[in-house]
Amino acid sequence: xxxxxxxxRGRGAAGGVLLVxxxxxxxxxxxxxxYLDFGFAxxxxxxxxxxxxxxxxxxxxxTVLGGLVxxxxxxxxxxxxxxxxxxxxxAWFAVGGPLAALWDVPGVGAPLGxxxxxxxxxxxxxxxxxxxxxxxxxxxxxxxxxxxxxxxADSEPGEEERAPSGATQPLxxxxxARETPPPSLGARPAPxxxxxxxxxxxxxxxxxxxxxxxxxxxRREER
Length: 223
Hints:
Blueprint: H1 13-36, H2 50-72, H3 76-100, H4 116-126, H5 128-146, H6 211-222
């Protein structure tokens, strides 16, 4: 049972790295955005309040923690839990703002951009679009940890079955085979000619020689 819970340690490496980067971006954007002139008001770096804690820091920390678990674990259960934690963080990025307004949380601040397109890009990069991407990556990581590869009954627990790369069909030896089996394979001897004591052909057929033999005999008689 313990072997079935183990997975290769690098199975969630790519997804884990992406989740850590996305979570760090979402958690730090309200604080470092003014340096890039891309973020949310006020136009000062490292401004902290409880709204940013609830809407940016908390889901960012959940995503980073889930990504680290997915990145470093070799246990199927821990990988699933880490992926679900990242899913929750991404979902809160996407819908946390409208839901938090129900308990009088106004948000992290208005976007810094003045053009409509830039304001939409800041909102997508910091919350809605970011949350959707995090949920997608976490769901892919969750699928990798929950998927199971079929293995033969006599293989070791946790060992994945892999088909041989250069597999060919086995040679068939017998009456109609093109190749004669080597003696080491223990093949049966070649069939006896028709009409002989060891032949499997009916005895009545032995009175009729093959066609080529009849023709040769008729030619000899004509001569």
